[in-house]
Every structure is written in C-alpha cells, then in structure tokens.
Hints:
Strand content: 15-25%
Helix content: 25-40%
CATH architecture: 3-Layer(aba) Sandwich
CATH class: Alpha Beta
Structural class: alpha/beta
Largest sheet: 7 strands, mixed
Strand order of the largest sheet: 2-5-3-8-11-9-10
Radius of gyration: 18 Å
Shape: globular
Number of helices: 8
CATH superfamily: Zn-dependent exopeptidases
Number of domains: 1
CATH topology: Aminopeptidase
Amino acid sequence: MRFADSEFDPYVLSLPTCSAIPLICDSPHSGVVYPADFQSCLPTSILRSGEDTYVEELWQAIPSVGGALLAANFPRTYIDPNREEDDIDPNILAEPWATELHPTEKSRLGHGLIWSMARKQPLYDRKLWVAEVENRIATYHQPYHQALQRQIEAAHERFGVVWHLNLHSMPSDSYEVLEIDTDKPLADFVLGDRDGTTCDPTLIGIIEDFLLQRGYTVARNDPFKGVALIARIGRPEENRHSLQIEVNRSLYMDEESYERSANFQNLQRDLSELSVTVAEFVRSVM
Length: 286
C-alpha cells in the first residue's frame, strides 16, 4: 500500500492479449493506493484489513485467455465500488444528505459505501462532510462503474452475451466479521450468484467442479451472495451473467503482515488454469 500525494487513476484496465471473448472480470477491492484526503484515525495495519490484497495478481491470466480485467486502485475502506451510492449510514455524516438514503445491512456493520468501521474499530474520529463523500463518489466510485459498464456493454453488443466474474478475497474469520454464529469452517472458495438469480448455473458448476478437483472446499452463497455489482449486471434472461468469486485469504497470504505466503504461486497457477477452463466454456457457447 502507499499514501498518494497527488491524484491517481481510479483503476487499471487490462485488455485481452489474444482474441477477445465476452468475459469481463473485475476486482473492486484490491486497491492499495490511499488518497491523501482519507484522514482515518486507524493505523494502516487495521485499515488494510479491508483490502482484497493481491486478488488482481491471482487472476492475472484473464487477459491472456481473451478476457478483460478491471482492478480498482483505491481502497474500499475509502469508498466501496461494490455498494450503491445511497448505501450510506446517515449517522456518519456531519450534515443531511440532499436525497433519500437507503443504508443496507452492510452499512449497519460499518461496511456500506463509506466504511465507518474496520475490525470493529471506528475509521474516523469525526463526522464526514457531504462534499467529501460526493467527491469520493465522483472521483473514484463513478469512474470505476463507468469503466466496468463500458466493457460489459461493448461485449454484450458485440457477442450478444456477456459473462462477468466479480473477484474478491475474504478474511478467514468472515463469519465472525459478519456476526454469524456458526461452528462450520469457512470454505476455501465461495461462489455467489444471489441465490441462483444472476448467472447461468452451468458456469458455476464448471468452476465448482474444477476447484473441487484441485482439492479446495467450495460453498455457494454462504456467507457471501454478492452485492451491488453482480446485482446490477447479472440478468441471465438478457444473456448477462454475473458471478462473485471469493477466495479465502489464508490460502495465499499472512493476514497480519499482508505478505504473500508460500502457497501464493500455487494458488495463482490454479486460478490461471481455471481462467483457461472458463474461457473454453465461454467460447463453446458464443
């Protein structure tokens, strides 16, 4: 991670390096460039717990199989691209918002559009001004969504179908973070399609089978179903398919030091081979 002393691009877009297919992938939470105006009161060691660190690296093979890969540069603790613009807890604001807000359960947990908590500690020792939040939306959130939407629409217009993978990582104590009381272990991978509503089940089955054959454990929609991005994009009846993929951070990194673990390259290799499998499926149904 680094703290920026000037403006920076909100995202990196890696385009296909071979014949393009209608596969658009995005990593909305792997950003590690912290804007100068963040002004959180938390130490970076806790702030970084919100990062899906290295996810864009784990999936770096996507362009080589014909897909596009969009990755945010800014951190989700600053503003979360996987939330709608009105998912704001009014209690974090120093003044009223101009229009009606619709905070979700994520906001209650402190993880709405603007995070107010990380590791159960307040991010700020003050309230935020409306202009601050509006600037974050205009400078980072909207450009990210616009870039993703351009890729989605271009693929759908060209091929008549689009397949979207929304790529994430999850802390190994996710059940605790989500305040879910359970004694079952967190899976290595969680595939989220908002309970069967955002993606053709054939692709989900292919991905699940691949991961199981490699020895990983896989869950569906437990505890992550997918939030704003796949809800917006996933409309299978219009040939728009969207799937969220969560990978357990303990598989590839030290969650305290944020360093890659010895297994990082093995996981990266498996996900590169999974990318080939996904691309073969997409080509087969084009």
